[in-house]
Amino acid sequence: MFKKILIANRGEIAARVIDSARKLGVATVAVYSDADATARHVAMADEAVHIGGPRPADSYLRGDAIIAAAIATGAEAIHPGYGFLSENPDFVEAVEKAGLTFIGPSASAIRAMGLKDAAKALMEQAGVPVVPGYHGANQDPEHLAGAADTIGYPVLIKAVAGGGGKGMRLVERPQDFAAALESAQGEARTAFGNPAVLIEKYVQKPRHIEVQVFGDGASAVHLFERDCSLQRRHQKVIEEAPAPGMTEAMRAAMGQAAVRAAEAIGYKGAGTVEFIVDGSDGLRADRFWFMEMNTRLQVEHPVTEAITGIDLVEWQLRVASGEPLPAAQDAIRLSGHAFEARLYAEDVPAGFLPATGTLSHLRFPEGARADTGVRPGDTISPWYDPMIAKIITHGPTRAIALSRLRAALEGTEVAGSVTNLSFLGALARHEGFARGEVDTGLIARDLDSLTRAAAPDLSVRALAALGAAGLAEGGGAMAGFALWAPLLHTVTLDGFTAQVQVLAPGHARVRIEDEEAECRRVSGSWWVNGRPSGARIVPTPGRISVFGPGAFHFERTDPLDRRSEAAGGGLTLSPMPGLVKAVFVSPGQTVKAGDRLAVLEAMKMEHTLAAARDGTVAEVLTSPGSQVEAGVALIRLEEEQA
Ligand code: ADP
Ligand code: ADP
Ligand code: MG
Predict the structure, then answer these.
(1) Mind listing the pLDDT tens digit for each residue in 196-227?
(2) What is the pLDDT of residue 522?
(3) For the domain that residue 153 is a member of, what is the CATH number?
(4) What is the pLDDT of residues 16-49, one digit of tens each?
(5) Residue that is last in its domain, among 451, 475, 491
(6) Are residues 275 and 400 in the same domain?
(7) Which residue's CA is the nearest one to ligand 2's atom 2?
(8) Which of 299, 507, 607, 634 gives 503 a disulfide partner, CB atoms 3.0 to 4.6 angstroms apart?
(9) What residue stretches are annotated with the Biotin carboxylation domain (predicted)?
(10) Last residue of some domain: 201, 218, 241?
(11) Does residue 54 form part of some domain?
(12) Domain of residue 310, CATH code
């Protein structure tokens, strides 16, 4: 095994690789750009080397600087993660020329799969079914249009150098072909410096099912399939393993085809063979076709880890360091079901625009795996992929794993940036998805309902109203609210108006239109309408966030402003009708904020009335034994000196 490796990446995947390296006792070197000097992956690694400016071209894509950093720190091998240099065969050659090990396949294997047309030709030869279509060299528009006619519409135009869904156009009718071709070629030229395209039959009711493979350079095994059909614009959103409805016959056929593909190119390390599947008539062993091979670790590898119990990064390090494949095919077992949801900083209502921000609050739930590159206080910068985390759940059945995913998404708390969390939650609750009826068109068909901003749970809105009324302020960790506040508040928040009636410290009734929520602080958590709500009020600088089922964020008004205005010179009011049991102060006495002033007995409970601020008692307007109405002034403090 290596003693020390360098990770040529950032974010969650760099952190993920460091975790497994540490487990194996391998020392780690991180690299970072100016934008990432304080990033999580840098903090986690044993050493870190600065490699350049924030633009990927000035740092994470600079193979020379990365190799120099590896040599300078004495690292023996480089793990490329995904994206960046992970599928760049020139980088692999440069790494090897420098006497280092590339943790991944050979340059020739990457080249064989690098262009989709050549890869398809190779796979045909290896007896792997490929999507019917034209993947020849003739790029004459008329020739390509003729090929599309022969294939039969609808067709898909794909950039041969494509990736990330770029340079791809679906064409439904012959009259649209020429324009679509031109725009696909233009996009391909800009994105990949290569305008060449291929034409494919557009598969009906398409499902994206991919097979995880692992090779040692001679032979390969597979670790079952992942279904990545939940896509938006050809980008994966939620992935799962195994594929819903998968049959043993189809799994065997796909696994064998994937292993054949890997062995045909002498594949070494972790790779993924992506297939497109015609799901119009269930899953059938003769209805899957090779699309492409990704010669790296895939973003969604954790679902495979969850169902096999195998650490794929550990396998990568073992095989790259010269060990044999850690397990034979028949020793690899599938257990249960797993999901992964990709949590992004993005503005869903604005059309899924990437967003940025400093994550003033970030919390992942227990009971789920969260792979992340950020900590609370970290910033999602405009320079890189805006992924915040991947949330992964596992369970003995698909239904259980999915309900765990829903719970995990509900329990995920992010403040400081807009996110796609509620979109992911809506997807996780989608009925067709719950039945396993997935295809790559699902999200687009139901986009409106999936992106409609659902009102957060009543408990969340009610606590937001308390926060906005200043009632959740003060006191340690939202311990309750002080009684300087007036008894009735009307607050207007984004989307609703609420009436808040204070009943006692830590106890209020909130009316939101025709709904009513009685909120009570019970040993550190909020109960709403007699049940523990799970909702939490989280103050962050300048803002307040409420998390529960759904989240709500708003600007904080300065509680001091409100306090002086509401306290009207330090009046303590009776929060509810009751009996004054005790009075602890007399005129002229100085008190500190929080000191006990009196006790009121109401609703069979004693309520301590505390001073809202430091001051001197001016008047005591009640006495023990008095029956008082709600809102009656009980104790007045002297005006504060300016
Ligand atoms: P996958 O199938 O694993 O999602 P794709 O083939 O769609 O991968 O995309 C290529 C990979 O490059 C993805 O893992 C994606 O997250 C990653 N990637 C794309 N853009 C960036 C970026 N700016 N920074 C880091 N990684 C990126
Ligand atoms: P990329 O390199 O951008 O990942 P792929 O060839 O893997 O490109 O295709 C991306 C996505 O486009 C697939 O996951 C699938 O949803 C869709 N797709 C690709 N080929 C077809 C096809 N022939 N028919 C239907 N959908 C397809
Ligand atoms: Mg792909």
Answers:
(1) 999 999 998 999 999 999 999 999 999 999 99
(2) 86
(3) 3.30.1490.20
(4) 999 999 999 999 999 999 999 999 999 999 999 9
(5) 451
(6) yes
(7) 163
(8) 507
(9) 1-448
(10) 201
(11) yes
(12) 3.30.470.20
Q: Is the CB of 164 under 6 A from ligand 1?
A: yes
Distance 65 CA to ligand 3 centre (A): 29
On whether residue 121 sits in a domain, the answer given is no
Q: 365 — alpha (psi -120 to 50), left (phi > 0) or beta? A: beta
Please give the distance, rounded to the nearest whole angstrom, from the Cα atom of residue 279 to the centre of ligand 3.
18
What's the pLDDT score for residue 484? 46
Burial class (CB in 10 A: 0-12, 13-18, 19+), 98: middle
Q: Is the CB of 390 under 6 A from ligand 1?
A: no
CATH number of the structural domain spanning residue 76: 3.40.50.20
pLDDT value at residue 559? 38
How far from the centroid of its chain's Cα atoms is residue 581's Cα?
53
Quick one: tokens of 14?
């760099």
Task: Check if 622 has its Cβ closer than 6 Å to any atom of ligand 1.
Answer: no
CB of 460 closer than 8 Å to CB of 466: no
Q: What is the CATH number of the domain that holds 609?
A: 2.40.50.100
> Residue 313, SS3?
helix
Domain identity same for 398 and 542: no
Give the pLDDT score at 351.
87
- Residue 483 confidence (pLDDT): 45
Does residue 384's CB lie within 6 angstroms of at least one atom of ligand 1? Answer: yes
Residues 379, 474 within the same domain = no
Q: What number does the ligand 2 atom closest to the CA of 165 have?
A: 3
Token output for 51: 């490699």
For ligand 1, whether the C-beta of 212 sits within 6 Å is no
Residue at 582 is within a domain = yes
> Does 373 contact ligand 1 (Cβ within 6 A)?
no
Q: Which of 130, 276, 278, 299 maximizes ligand 2 atoms within 8 Å of its Cβ, making it the mutation to test the pocket?
A: 276
Q: Whose CA is nearest to atom 27 of ligand 1?
A: 83
pLDDT band at 605 (very low <50, low <70, confident <90, very high): low
Instruction: Report the catalytic residues.
Output: 296
Q: What is the pLDDT of residue 422?
A: 94
Check the CA dihedral 466-467-473-477 and report its sign: positive
Helix, strand or coil for residue 443? helix
Return the half-sphere exposure (C-beta side, CA atoms, 13 A cut-off) of residue 265.
Answer: 32
The minimum-distance atom of ligand 1 relative to the CA of 164 is: 7
Q: Domain range spanning residue 190?
A: 132-201
Tens-digit pLDDT profile for residues 58-108: 999 999 999 999 999 999 999 999 999 999 999 999 999 999 999 999 999
Q: How many whole angstroms from 110 Cα to the centroid of ligand 3?
A: 15
Residues 306 and 336 both lie in one domain: yes
Q: What is the pLDDT of residue 122?
A: 93
Answer yes or no: do 183 and 215 share one domain: no
Contacts of 563 (CB under 8 A, 6+ apart): 470, 482, 484, 485, 612, 613
Q: Are residues 366 and 468 in the same domain?
A: no
- Average pLDDT, whole number, for the chain? 91
Q: How far is Cα of residue 576 from the mean position of the Cα atoms in its chain?
A: 45
Nearest Cα residue to atom 23 of ligand 2: 202
Q: What does the pLDDT read at residue 558?
A: 44
Report DSSP letters for 469-511, one per residue: TTTT-SSGGG----TTS-SEEEEEETTEEEEEEEEETTEEEEE
Q: Residue 486 — very low, low, confident or very high, per pLDDT cuts 50/70/90? A: low
How many independent structural domains does the chain possess? Answer: 5
Query: Do residues 495 and 605 both lie within one domain?
Result: no
List pLDDT tens digits, range 177-192.
999 999 999 999 988 9
* Residue 561 forms part of a structural domain: no
